[in-house]
Amino acid sequence: MKRTIAILLALAALFTAPHAAAQHDGQYEYRLRNDLLRTETIDDMQALAPRDDLDFPHATVFLLNGQPVSRRQALERIRIWNVLSARRTVCRLRGAGVPGRYRVVYVAFRIDTTCGQPHLDGNVAGYVWCRGRNSQPYIGSYVSRAQYDSVRRLSSERTIAVDRSEWHSLSPEVACYLDGKPVPADLFRWIDGCVVRSMDYYPPDLSVQRYGEAGEHGVLAAETFSGRRPLVFFDGERMPFDRWLRLCAQYRFDYDPRTGQEGNFRYIQPAEAVERFGAAARYGAVDVRTR
After folding, report:
1. Domains contained in the chain, number
2. Is the pTM of this model over 0.90?
């Protein structure tokens, strides 16, 4: 009965909705436009999805821990850190009044409901970027966990205002580490909100003891979600996630909103990623376009 109701709701939604750590020389190979916060679909994303799912009229039913939910609820509640499992099933509908090639795509997730309010773990609750005229971007200031529990990863319905006096400035020379390895700060622009699980700041007096001379200006140490990696599509071709990180660490990409259509970067949330690419994308997907 629940399955029948879910199909009817999906059909109604379809027919009522509109169709629709090296030295940097300042030169970048690609300049991308960061669409991390956009929710609309990239026009050419369909080219990456299995054709037999998108060449036919179809509706999508999202199931979360066995219960049907709306697309908006799925996008907001399913995150890389709480996914336990995912599957996608395509069913063909038959019966009076149903087009012969019409399909329903079932996207089912099981998530860990004990995670609580998601946030960036560690003593850094949130941070902002700075960019000098002749320097690479760097994390210029942060707010500590002791002051705010969750600044960055809030749902679209919640906002939080941080008083200017509670932001702590960082040196442009601060050293950055990811999973114990030194990386340029620029790297975090491409994985923020994606695979970064925690971030801690160590002031110079503590970082020198822990990291030696590399920590004389302080250290930002981040860790990723162990074993959780999104799919990466680079100009439509699959790319290993570790290779994508290496490209980012080599300053191959630059982000400037004024670059317009010169490139596009987008992290696709798990619900949409599984709908398009199958269960292999249960931790989301990264789509990079340079042409």
Report:
1. 2
2. no
